[in-house]
Design goal:
This protein is mainly alpha-helical. 70% of the residues lie in helices and 0% in strands.
Length: 94
């Protein structure tokens, strides 16, 4: 998937809000790919690890990444809540 093209213009308020919601969806998709990669990393290390220390080190790394992603998800939820009860009209955005 390529990067979205964002061009400045005279979009309506509705379009601006739609763009923000779309950006949240793209961010969530990216985060899901990162989580999937972390799961694959865990599967690989479990299959090849020869010492408990290796497992613990990778587990710590994965735990840190999942924690960071959880925090980002909270921020995305807050961003979406800004528009939860929005009744948009077709006035130009500022």
């Amino acid at each position: 998937m390529g990067m979205p093209v964002i061009t400045p213009g005279t979009a309506t308020r509705t379009q601006a809000i739609t763009d923000i919601i779309s950006s949240v969806a793209l961010e969530q998709t990216a985060l899901s790919h990162i989580l999937n990669a972390e799961g694959e990393k865990l599967q690989k290390i479990v299959s090849v690890a020869t010492a408990n220390e290796e497992l613990l080190e990778v587990n710590k790394s994965v735990n840190s990444m999942v924690d960071s992603i959880s925090r980002l998800e909270i921020l995305l939820q807050i961003k979406l809540q800004l528009f939860g009860d929005c009744l948009c009209d077709e006035t130009p955005a500022f």
